[in-house]
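=== How it folds ===
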Amino acid sequence: MTDPEILDEDFSAALKEMSGFVDITEKDLLELYRLALKHASNRRTSHLLVEQVMTRNVISVKLGADPHDAEALLFEHRISGLPVVDEGNRVVGVVSEQDFLHCMEDCDFMSFTDRVRHFLHRKEYKRKTQCEKVEDLMTTPPITVQKGMSVNRVATILVEKKINRVPVVDEEGRLAGIVSRADLIKVLHELHHK
């Protein structure tokens, strides 16, 4: 792995984090280097905007859609969640695998395996779960981010909210893309290997 270039400003910022007098022992020097490297890395990612790293071709589902359609999209594209949009392409919710599992909690089956089998085969799905439209199980209000937000801020939101992906919207709330934890890890990997 190639470390980012460390500038004087990174060492200055690192020194400010160290408390007291700095006696340059090997341990102090390594700590100073580690802190400077952290600042250099943060400086490199702070200028990146979410619109530079987001996925633009977003798989979404329309408000009013049958839950089976959303489930099929999740399965077919091997994703764990997707935005729900209205007729104006504004994000109104997010539906995820977890939402489907919560919807299945009302089913009286003997085991989790039976629940999954039932769900995958769609037997009496609507009658048993009472989820007739995607809005019956989606999470609202949706957590979204703006296209001009920094990648660092988006990473913080994903961690704080404990979510894997977040829809990216324009100024009117219309779906513009989606960014996932995997997208951010890819950016970090590419930055460190330049």
